[in-house]
Design goal:
Length: 365
């Protein structure tokens, strides 16, 4: 709206607005009868400048206005596509995007993109791409690529995609810093799998199911600072935990049971400072008591968060109080573990009396 308003103020401002192509480079999805005309004007007056696009998709089919914008794909720099409804066909994304830097699709729809050996390649040419996020199932950066991409962030959801295709796509992002993967049962494939090393990977958030769990041995790094996994995945994370024992500072469990069975798999994380339990996860007495009785277990831990719908088991547990007392007692030994300095209990399933007691113990009451 801004460039149109400026151009309507007076003749002088109209001249300035028409001569300033950068004013016309942001395109969103206007919801009125002249939307198509507005977009045509923006495309024309922006000249050859790169475009930033934020588009909300309504209905099942591709909006003709979005197809019009796709004709200028060589100028796209930023693209946000919010799909409000069933995921429509995304074939327009098979064009070259030589200027794209940030690419985001947000949708709750699953889409109908089942993997086949002739699977389409989206964004086949995107040499400047730095940020890729797609919650549209199976839209990912399938290889092979002409060369490495400057990607620092990848988020995608893959179902039925062979592991070698996933690894091939990740090989195109050697400087990756954040990786978020949701991988369902991969398509069987005899292709030999080669591990991929990421020298700068800081954040790993993934949900792996079935044969996809083997990715835990194929993604390698020694720089992780944050990990988010389902609790049941901890055993297959042994190699990554060992390689990043001195760097991982935060671990989050959005699902599963955090109990004493996890202790052997987390023991190597000597730099861990924060544990977050959220969504459908449960943290048990047995895990908290293991931290209480083993002073050398997670010695730098100082923050525990239980939020969303996560639960303590049992809900009236005294284990958390015992842990705080044990870790926060006066102990001048240089080998003593860090004190528990912050506990956040925002889950509705935790008794208010326990929240108040913990707040008092930490001096917040």
């Amino acid at each position: 709206r801004v460039p149109f308003v400026l151009a309507s103020v007076c003749r002088r401002w109209r001249t300035v607005a028409l001569d300033t192509s950068s004013l016309w480079t942001f395109i969103h999805s206007p919801k009125h009868d002249i939307a198509g005309t507005c977009v045509e004007i923006l495309l024309e007056r922006s000249g050859v400048a790169t475009l930033s696009i934020a588009y909300i998709q309504y209905g099942d089919g591709i909006d003709p206005i979005l197809e019009m914008i796709a004709e200028e794909s060589v100028r796209w720099r930023d693209f946000l596509w919010i799909i409000d409804g069933p995921a429509p066909d995304a074939s327009f994304l098979r064009r070259p995007f030589p200027a794209i830097e940030n690419f985001v699709i947000k949708t709750a729809g699953r889409g109908d993109h089942e993997w086949t050996p002739e699977y389409p390649q989206y964004l086949p040419f995107a040499p400047r791409l730095r940020y890729f996020s797609s919650s549209y199932d199976n839209i990912f950066l399938a290889g092979p690529r002409e060369g490495p991409l400057p990607l620092s962030f990848i988020h995608c959801r893959l179902f039925g995609v062979p592991l070698h295709s996933i690894l091939e796509s990740l090989q195109a992002a050697p400087q990756l810093e954040v990786l978020e993967l949701y991988v369902g049962q991969p398509h069987p494939d005899p292709t030999p799998l080669m591990p991929v090393f990421f020298p700068n990977l800081r954040v790993l958030r993934w949900f792996l199911y079935g044969e996809a769990l083997s990715l835990a041995q194929l993604i390698r790094t020694n720089t992780l600072r944050e990990v988010r996994i389902v609790a049941s995945m901890a055993p297959v994370m042994a190699d990554l935990f060992s390689a990043c024992a001195a760097t991982i500072q935060r671990i989050s469990f959005p699902d599963g049971r955090v109990d004493a069975d996890l202790v052997p798999h987390l023991r190597s994380l000597r730099a861990l400072e924060r544990i977050v339990v959220s969504h459908k996860a449960v943290i048990s007495d047995s895990f908290l008591d293991a931290l209480t009785t083993n002073q050398d277990l997670l010695p730098r831990l100082h923050t525990i968060t239980v939020n969303d719908r996560a639960l303590l088991n049992p809900p009236d547990s005294g284990a958390l109080v015992r842990l705080i007392k044990a870790r926060n007692s006066s102990n001048p030994s240089p080998t003593a573990p860090s004190k528990i300095s912050k506990v956040t209990l925002s889950s509705g399933g935790i008794p208010n009396w326990l929240k108040a007691q913990v707040d008092h113990m930490l001096g917040d009451a």
